[in-house]
Write a structure and sequence with these properties.
By secondary structure, the protein is α+β, with helices and mostly antiparallel strands. The chain is built from 10 helices and 13 strands. Helix 2 runs parallel beside helix 6, helix 7 crosses helix 8 and helix 9 crosses helix 10. The two termini are 15 Å apart.
Length: 377
Amino acid sequence: MPVTRENNRALICSIGTSVPESRYTQEQALEFMKSIPSYGESDRSFLERIYPASAIETRHSVIADWSRKPSEFTFFSRNGNMHPEPGLRRRNELFAEESPAIAERAARRAIEANDEIAIDDITHIITVSCTGFTAPGIDYQLIRRLGLGRNVHRFHVGFMGCYAVYPALKMADSFVRNDPDATVLIVALELCTLHVQFKQERETMVANSLFADGCAACVVAAEGRYRAPGAYGIEAFASTLIDDSESDMAWNVGDVAFDMRLSAYVPKIVEKNVPSIVDTLCDMAGVDRATIDRWAIHPGGRAVLDRVKRGLGLDHEALRPSFDILRRYGNMSSPTILFVLKGLLEDETRRPDRGETVFSAAFGPGLTVESALLTVR
């Protein structure tokens, strides 16, 4: 089918993912945290409640210290009291060192996942991250490492948190609808564990139990430009700011690391608002909520997914792809939703059929909810 400005629906043609080599279990993470000398008995008791209840089994990190003895640490302090903690400069240096290779692997896998897409086809690159900064950035490194053209258009979505892939997808959708020859590479990379801190604050301890490192990439192009079985057609986007919730989730630059503000009220806020969020997006797309066949929800944590289930009247099976990614990888912030969308397409138990409608959403600082309505092509 010839691609024209009149019929060029944007497709997520392929998705690729990568994670750091260092993998550790939630049990290992719990034992590591319990060994922090500054934590008292009440702190350890709290840790023993939240880690087993997280629904996470394994996570990945660019830090390899989780299963090592203190004398073997390469990131954390080797002395017995774990202080001083690594400073912000050291954390960002490790981000700069580790991020290019991890991003390259995900990008190559996304491109190679479709035999028709070539490196030279890429016209735009959008990078996404909120866990580190470099200049020139990941976009520049990817152009060099992938061998992209020097004239590729470069953009970066920074410091937006778990929902940040959606603004990137909106940009790609606009580029493709405006120029049917455009092929856009999106690469979302977060190294969340670089910002682990040993504060005796419950919110920090909860964040430490959830977040992990990972990267996901996808290629967006006009429908008909490539054969793309199993792709996602982009139907509509919606963005919602939930009133009176700004203080419940935030991501700030602290003295020694980036500080996550994660209120225990977030899951309840999500449950209360998710029905209207779904209905708003469906109204924009001109469909009824009953026509949604699949759900791809960002697994911010077990409590968030449980509250989404309750708010929408769904059973566990409806959110199984999200729970599966949470179990295997934890919350990787922005790339996580692409892991979920990839997992949904590869679900051997219930592989989606062509034409099925997918509601996808993620929650982040603000409290902001970004959502997209997709169709399986």
